[in-house]
Amino acid sequence: MEKATGPLNISLEESVPFVTILTITGVTSIATNLLIVGIICKNSQLRKVHDLFTLHSSLVDLLTASVVVPFWILSAIHSKTNFVGDVYCKVSATLSLVELLAPAMFLMLVATSRHCSIVDKMAFPRIFSDSRSNLMATMVWLFSFLISIPPHVAWPTSPEIQCLPDLVTNSWYTTAVLSFCFLLPLSAAFYTHIYDIFIFQPERMKRDDSMRRRCEIYAPRGSERTTQKVYFLILIIHTCCWAPYLCVALTQAMNGGEIYYTGNFPIHFVALVVALTGTALKGVVSCFELPHLKESIKKQFGCTERKSKSGASAKSSETSKAQKAKKSVLKGVQRTQKRKVRTNVHFYRPKTLRLQRTPKYPRHSAPRTNKLDHFAIIKHPLTTESAMKKIEDNNTLVFIVDVRANKPQIKASVKKLYDIDASKVNTLIRPDGQKKAYVRLAPDYDALDVANKIGII
Fold this sequence. Notes:
By secondary structure, the protein is α+β, with helices and mostly antiparallel strands. The protein has two domains: 12-301, Rhodopsin 7-helix transmembrane proteins (Rhopdopsin 7-helix transmembrane proteins, Up-down Bundle); 374-454, Alpha-Beta Plaits. 61% of the residues lie in helices and 6% in strands. The protein contains 16 helices and six strands. The chain has helices at residues 16-42, 49-78, 86-119, 124-127, 130-148, 150-153, 171-199, 210-218, 223-254, 267-289, 291-301, 311-331, 374-377, 385-394, 407-418, 447-454, and strands spanning 261-262, 265-266, 378-381, 396-401, 422-429, 435-441. The strands form two sheets. It has a four-stranded antiparallel β-sheet with strand order 3-4-6-5. The longest helix is centred in the first third of the chain and has 34 residues, at 86-119. It is extended. The chain starts with 15 loop residues before the first helix and ends with a helix. Residues 1-7 have low confidence and may be disordered. InterPro entries: GPCR_Rhodpsn, GPCR_Rhodpsn_7TM, Nucleotide-bd_a/b_plait_sf, Ribosomal_uL23, Ribosomal_uL23-like, Ribosomal_uL23/eL15/eS24_sf, Ribosomal_uL23_CS, Ribosomal_uL23_N. Keywords: Membrane, Ribonucleoprotein, Ribosomal protein, RNA-binding, rRNA-binding, Transmembrane, Transmembrane helix. Residues 32-286 form the G-protein coupled receptors family 1 profile domain.
């Protein structure tokens, strides 16, 4: 075995497992995060607020997988970190620290936006408007990069932790960064997820008061609750993947920067490899577990679910066929015919084959266009105070529709125009002769979000 010569203190043969793990991590992370970024950008018209923060979190993971992971693969192969100079080394260290801090803050913003949309629906459009959400995302990027600059210019870095996020040299810097930029956002995100998933539920409310009634109306159910659980899982993955590196860094900081080894492997490098695997795990969980992303990916690649017979039904059909064949073999096909009992005085001709018409050319040169299409059915939404109250209290949108339209046509038009499912439609004719439609949305949709999207609010 070759003797180690580089700062990693591992030879080429010893670096094979790490190179393999980092290669799989990099390829998986780049593929999944590129897919997430592409799907969210393509469906930007239907994008929700938390999708914006998910997009930026995936961009951080994609940037890390594209720059940091190849750097450590080449460092392990060359047995040195300065194979292309110090610039790439500093960029890798900066992006590694950004990967630690920025996703934690973006996941905190995801949890906060979803919690605000549940608890205070009236204030949510004002707090998390499009401009303010973009401003928050920009501030997270700037803050993460500014926090990552001091280790390169403010104090000298020991060669043992070169090209790594320096949380060892300056204990004051480490304490401030971990307290305010990592632990504080994680604590807020954990609290909001636990409250929304486990506490803010009707079955958890013992007293029959206003809070219980509010839970019955606004508590996340179905796909919304599944989405909340998936974001909670992503938060846990990010925390657990970076926990070993933080523990090693704090231990080294308390012991004066002493480096620990497991055999020939430096522990801080092993912990960093574990932390970088989080970029791939988060991307895989987001692609295959988030309901709206999973449906968009299936639709993008044309993977529609096909209904097939179950094994039990197929087996029963085969059994019935075998029984019929056995009966025909034992009794034969030719059987004695019974005399038909006549109970009616009328005789009718037997029903013969009547083929359908197969015209060779159309009888009309151009078919008549449908004048009552979905654009004509929905005239405009109502924005009166009573309509706003229906949106807030009953999860119901109010529209002025064509007098000739019926309830199924109104329901289909709302689905086609706004891509929302309605559970029930009620109509009435106003004294001025116009028809008003009350469209109650399905439990998976929030009327305030839909009204904000289509421009009622």
